[in-house]
Amino acid sequence: MKPATARGLTQDELEELERQKRKEEEDRELEKLLLGGTAVTRENFLEWKAKFDEELAQKRDTVMKQKEKDAEHDAMKLTGREYFDMKAAEGEAALLESFHQLTADE
Questions:
Q1: Domain membership of residue 57 as a residue range
Q2: I need a surface site. Which of 43, 49, 64, 106 has the fewest CB within 10 A?
Q3: Is residue 4 part of a domain?
Q4: Whether the Cβ atoms of residue 9 and residue 17 lie closer than 8 Å to each other
Q5: What sign does the dihedral 90-96-99-101 (CA atoms) show?
Q6: C-alpha triplet 90, 92, 93: angle, nearest 5°
Q7: What's the rounded Cα separation, in Å, for the pair 94 and 23?
Q8: What is the pTM of this model?
Q9: Does the residue 61 lie in any domain?
Q10: Higher model confidence: residue 17 or residue 37?
């Protein structure tokens, strides 16, 4: 098929050529999308791996710090029995104090 010129083509033939050009361009763009991206080489992979390991280490540090913080908080928590004994002791102390005030006033 010889190269087409605008003079020798009808309107329908021109439209068909335009559709074919658009289709070919769409196919090229689709191929770019499917095959696109960065080719993986040893250097690219090692660079990515170093960044990934660094990010992972930062996340791990953050999680460990949070766990340590939570452990400290849990260590300061009282058990039910300890809380009961503390409140009972406070109640007894308040009762003894009011008793001493009453006896001191008499």
A1: 11-37+46-105
A2: 106
A3: no
A4: yes
A5: negative
A6: 65
A7: 90
A8: 0.38
A9: yes
A10: 17
Q: Please list, in sequence order, all residues whose beta carbon lies within 8 angstroms of the beta carbon of residue 6, skipping any fewer than 6 positions away.
A: 14
Mean pLDDT, rounded, of the chain: 84
Taking 3-state DSSP, the helix, strand and coil percentages for the chain, each rounded to the nearest 5, stand at: 80, 0, 20
Distance CA 35, CA 29 (A): 10
Measured CA to CA, the distance from residue 18 to residue 52 in angstroms comes to 47
Which is nearest to 89 in space by CA: 59, 81, 15, 24? 81
Picking from 27, 1, 30, the residue whose alpha carbon sits closest to that of residue 13 is: 1
Question: Rounded to an integer, what is the distance from CA 79 to the centroid of its chain?
Answer: 35
Q: What is the pLDDT of residues 70-98, one digit of tens each?
A: 887 777 777 888 888 888 888 888 877 87
Phi-psi domain of 39 (left: phi exceeds 0; alpha: psi -120 through 50; beta: other) = beta
Q: How many domains does the chain divide into? A: 1
The per-residue pLDDT for 96 is: 78
pLDDT per residue as tens digits for the range 46-58: 999 999 999 999 9
Q: Answer yes or no: is 3 within a domain.
A: no
